[in-house]
Amino acid sequence: MIQINGENLTLEQVISVVRDFEKVEIDSSCFDAMKVSVDTVQGFIDQEKVVYGVTTGFGALANVSIPAEKVKELQKNIILSHAAGVGEPFEDEIVRAMMLLRANSLVKGFSGIRIDSVNKLIAFLNNNIIPVVPCQGSVGASGDLAPLAHVAMALMGYGKVKYKGEILDAEYAINDCGLEKLVPIQKEGLALLNGTQMMASVLCVTLDKAYRLLEWSLVSASMTIDALRGSKTPFDLRIHKIRNHPGQQYVSGRIGEYLSGSEIMESHKNCSKVQDAYSLRAIPQVVGAVKDSLDYVRTVLEREINSVTDNPIIVDGEALSGGNFHGEPLALVADFLSIALAELGSITERRIDRLVNPLVSSLPPFLARGAEGLNSGYMIWQYTSAALASENKSLCHPASVDSIPTSAFQEDHVSMGSIASRKSKEVLKNVYKIIAIEIMLSYRGLEFLSELKTGEKLDDIINEFKGEFSEYKEDRYFGEDFERILNYISENDPK
Q1: Residue 456 and which of 313, 333, 407, 491 are 20 to 30 A apart at CA?
Q2: 479-491 and 417-447 helices cross at what angle (nearest 10)?
C-alpha cells in the first residue's frame, strides 16, 4: 500500500502502482488541510466573493458571475464540456498514472476538493477501472484539460472505461464495484481538470522505459565492440575520472564490466589499429550524456508530480490565481528527453552500419552466410535502423517552441508539453527497435568469432536471450528474430 501525501512520490512508486497494481490510499496527515480548503471555498460562496472558477465562468468567461445556486452545476458542466479529446486512447498504464498523479497533487490541500471526491479517484485506480482517454486535445496550459476531463467524466458515470478487459459504460463499472458516482461541488470540477498530469504521466512511463533501454544499449554496444574487435582503452576509467560527468563514468564502468575477461579482446591486444571510430570510442561520452539527461528529466519530473498545478489555489484563506497549470517545465524536458534518446539511436545506427559494412568490419559482408552474392544477409536491417534514426530527427523538432493562443486570447501562451511528451514516447519506441537490431546483428557477428568468448558478464546476458534466435544458415525472413528480441528487451532488464 502506497500512502500519498503530495510530498514524496517517486518514479519507482508511480511505476509500482501503474504497472504492478500497488494499492493507494491518502495519508491521514493530509485530511486537515484538505478540509480547511473545502471550508474556505464554501466561505467564498457564502460571502458572495468573486473567485475564478468558483463564482465565475472559465477562461475568457472569467468576468461572468455565477449565482450561488448554480455553482455545483457549473462544476458538472465544465467536466462534460471540456471532455473534448480526440484520437487513439492512451495506454492503460498512462491513464492509471494520470489518476495517481492527480490524486497526489489534490491531497496537498490547496485545491478545495473533498477527501471523499479524491477517494473516488483512488477507488477507480484500486479497482482498475481505466477511463478511456483520447490522446489528443491538450495544449499543455490551463493544465491538460481535455484528457483530465475524460477521467473526471468517468467518475461521474459518463463515458467509457476499460474494466475487466472490456470497454464498458463507466456507470456499469461503478455499480459493479459497489462505488458511488462523483457529484462535484464548488471548485471540484476545476480541481480535477486543471493540472499537468497527462504530460507528467506520459513522461513517467516513457522515462522508466528509457532507463531500461539505456541499460540494454550498454549490452548491445558491448556486443558490437567485441564483434568488431574494438579496443578497451576508451573505457579505461582513468580517462573518465578527469572529465566530471557522472553519466560518462557510469557508462564506461558498465562497459568495462561487460568486456572484462573477454578472450576476443585479448586476441587482438597487440594489433596495429590505433583508434576506433567515434561510434565505438566515444560511447561513454555520448551515452553518458544521455544518462545524465535522463537523470535531469527525472529531477524535474519528480518535482512536478509532487506539486500543486491547478488554479486558483487556496492558501491562507485566499484564492490565488496564478499559472501553476502551465506545462513549460515538463515541455522543455520532454523535448530534451526526445533529443537525448534520438542521439542514443543515432550512435547505435552508426555501429550497426559498421557491423554489416565489409570495408570496416573484418566480418563477412552484411554478416551473410551461404553462397556469397546469393545471400544478402542483414544488409537491409541497416536501412531500417537508418530510417528509424532519421524519423527521430523529425520527431525531435521541439514542440515547446510552439504556441497557439486559446480561449479568446486569454490563454495566449501555451506549452505544448502534451505534444512534447507524446513525441518522446514515439522516439523511445523507435530507439528500442534500433537497439534490438544492434543486438540481433552483433549476436550474429559474435557467431563468426565463436571460437573465442566475450566477457563473462556479457556472455551470461547473451545466454539469457539466446533462445530468441533461430538458426541461421542462409537468407531467410529475419523479422521474427527481431520481434522476439524487441519483446525481450522491452519486458526484461539485463540480468
Answers
A1: 491
A2: 120
How is residue 45 written as a grid cell?
Answer: 460562496
Percent of the chain at pLDDT exceeding 90: 90
Buried b or exposed e, range 416-454, using 16+ CB within 10 angstroms? bbbbbbbbbbebbbbbbbbbbbbbbbbbbbbeebeeeeb
Residue 200 in contact with residue 94, Cβ under 8 Å?
no
Cα angle value 100/146/59 (rounded, 5°): 115
* Residue-range domains of the chain with CATH: 2-195 (1.10.275.10), 202-491 (1.20.200.10)
Cα dihedral 34, 35, 40, 46 in deg (nearest 10):
140
Catalytic residues: 52
Prediction pTM value? 0.96
Separation of alpha carbons 298 and 449, rounded Å: 40
**Buried residues in 123-142 as b, exposed as e (16+ CB within 10 A):** bbbbbbbbbbbbbebbbbbb
DSSP 469: P
**For residue range 134-171, what is the model confidence (pLDDT) as tens digits?**
999 999 998 899 999 999 999 999 999 999 999 999 99
Q: Which residues contact 428 (CB under 8 A, 6 or more apart)?
A: 206, 209, 210, 213, 341
